[in-house]
TrEMBL record:
Residues 88-107 form the Anti-proliferative protein domain. It comes from Burhinus bistriatus. One of its GO terms (cellular component) is cytoplasm. Belongs to the BTG family. Coiled coil: none annotated. Transmembrane segments: none annotated. This is BTG1 protein. Signal peptide: none annotated.
Length: 156
């Protein structure tokens, strides 16, 4: 869980850094606060033996409403929801699951993988097309197939 949460927090922090106007110390504090909020939120909703279980609960979402976990971390450094909406994409979905962290910007954007690792026993996670998680639910009803990105590195 530690790597997945760190990857997710680093990604959101990187989005804020790219928007500019926030100091490095504030960004560091935001990242630490978001990691702690995610750890606490996911504590009883992390199932490595069934990675898709609880996927909807672990989904971080901005869609004309600010995700409360991002909002909480931002509040710790003095950023209002209004300012966050200026700095972050207006539509962002971030899935934090055991062995994988992925995101989509916009309702029709591609799902891109930030982090992926083998499950215990050496098997890789199921191919994207065969998953039964909230990511699959997002694609149902799309007029065209999703373009999937491979790996994207996140630096902190």
């Amino acid at each position: 869980m530690r790597t997945e949460i760190s990857t997710a927090a680093a990604f959101v922090t990187r989005l804020l850094r790219a928007a500019g106007g926030i100091g490095e110390e504030q960004l560091r504090c935001f990242r630490e606060c978001l990691q702690e909020a995610l750890r606490e939120h996911y504590k009883h909703h992390w199932f490595p033996l069934v990675p898709s279980k609880g996927s909807g609960y672990r989904c971080i979402r901005i869609n004309h409403k600010m995700d409360p976990l991002i909002g909480k971390a931002a509040g710790m450094i003095g950023l209002s929801h209004e300012r966050l909406f200026q700095l972050l994409p207006s539509e962002l979905t971030l899935w934090v699951d055991p062995f994988e962290v992925s995101y989509r910007i916009g309702e029709d954007g591609s799902i891109c993988v930030l982090y992926e690792s083998p499950q215990p026993g050496g098997k890789m996670t199921k191919p994207l097309e065969s998953r039964t998680s909230c990511k699959e639910e997002w694609r149902i009803g799309r007029s065209s197939p999703s373009k999937n990105c491979n790996m994207m590195t996140v630096s902190s």
